[in-house]
Amino acid sequence: MTSELALTAESDIGAAAGQLRRVLLSVPVACELHVGDDGSSPESLTPASVLFPIVRRDAGWFVLLTQRTDHLRDHPGQISFPGGRVEPEDQSPVHTALRETQEEIGLSSEHIDVIGFLPDYCTITGYRVTPVVGLVTPPFELSPDAHEVAQVFEVPFDFLMDPANHQEHVIQRNGRPRKFYAVPYQDYFIWGATAGIILSLHRALTA
Question: Measuring CA to CA, how many Å separate 112 from each of 87, 89, 198, 199?
């Protein structure tokens, strides 16, 4: 089943944004289960927040993603949404997502309209990630942090929402099979938490 939301150049932007708002959560909702190996609860995980940035361009709607640099301790080289762990001064998941986005890629919050949340995503690496969905209005300039971000790129929203592009893989972790999702795009292998959050939005749109 494909998403009924087609964010193309011909779309009524107001209607499309309205549909997105209706399927998103108005407040964050914690993940019910922790999929990690130590059996810890979601409350014991490190809280983090990411921005799911949907860019509205004349040619259609696109999702902005980053590729992490290879020398980082956490998830080196992986494709990710801009974001990171919650800092003591952060007032909310939105504040965390916007602050991290500004720090990582230089995208100012003045270009971002936060429209809702997806359910928290608990990772096997010990994070409880709150996805904050925002509509991004060009023109804007980016200044990626060279220490954290190898590159910034965009993927068509409809490509990510098409189940024909969703893959399921199994790996062995600590002697047990673990399932994970992937959404390959051109030379990019989008997987792990990023792919899981993308599929979370797809499920919301097709529910």
Answer: 21, 21, 19, 22
Residue stretches of the chain with pLDDT short of 70? 1-14, 32-43, 72-76
Task: Name the CATH superfamily housing domain 13-206.
Answer: Nucleoside Triphosphate Pyrophosphohydrolase (3.90.79.10)
**pTM for the full predicted model:** 0.88
* Phi then psi dihedrals of residue 29, to 5 deg: -125, 125
How many Cα atoms occupy the beta-carbon half-sphere of 112 within 13 Å?
A: 24
- Helical H segments across the chain, by residue range: 13-23, 93-105, 157-161, 192-206
Number of Cα atoms under 13 Å in the Cβ half of residue 22: 10
pLDDT tens figures, 133-184: 999 999 999 999 999 999 999 999 999 999 999 999 887 777 788 888 999 9
